[in-house]
């Protein structure tokens, strides 16, 4: 977590210490959102294969939405009385995760890796929403973002899910493992090709 700075002003009903604490939580999310927007754009540019256009076009609206979230979080940090930091060097210095590890690859490989990216991203975002519960506006902002992020995650997972509800990348611990698992299942004819959903 970035160091908490005590602002010289904050929003009514919050102490300066609380304003600084909530701004620090939001600063972490700002870094993560900037990174996610870049990762999604990277996927948009590097996806190939027979499902290229569907995935290529599915990713761009996610990029646009995440960029909107970046702006909303940065403005909330400023409203809390702290200066938002959006520089690349600050992001790299503060982050606790590695760069996205998949380059040019088949669409299903990227979707497998993105499933893991979204899984971890959403888990951290939910923790942040809980951490700012003392500020209902910041909490509401993050919960609104979660609604969109979880929807995007479902879009990704729908490509990896069998009719029986199994994910082709289940159990993968790294992006490369998730990508490989998704590709392996796709190469065998699809996720659970013999499965039929129960009605």
Please provide a written account of the structure:
- The chain is an all-alpha fold and 199 residues long.
- Helices cover 64% and strands 2% of the residues.
- It has six helices and two strands.
- It has helices at 16-46, 52-79, 88-94, 107-131, 136-158, 175-187; strands at residues 47-48, 105-106.
- Strands 1-2 form a two-stranded parallel sheet.
- Helix 2 runs antiparallel to helix 5, helix 4 runs antiparallel to helix 5 (136-158) and helix 4 (107-131) crosses helix 6 (175-187).
- The protein is elongated, with a radius of gyration of 19 Å.
Jot down its keywords.
2 strands; two-stranded parallel ribbon; 199 residues; mainly alpha; Ferritin; single chain
Read across the widest sheet, the strand sequence of neighbours is 1-2
Order of helices and strands: HEHHEHHH
Strand percentage = under 5%
Rg calc: 19 Å
User: What is the straight-line distance between the termini?
Assistant: 46 Å
Structural class: mainly alpha
Question: Could you name the CATH topology?
Answer: Ferritin
What's the structural domain tally?
1
What's the CATH architecture? Up-down Bundle
- SS summary, helix count: 6
What topology emerges from the helices and strands here?
Layout lengths: L15 H31 E2 L3 H28 L8 H7 L10 E2 H25 L4 H23 L16 H13 L12
Parallel strand pairs: 1-2
Concise structural overview:
The chain has 199 residues and is mainly alpha-helical. The protein is built from 6 helices and 2 strands; from the N terminus they run H-E-H-H-E-H-H-H.
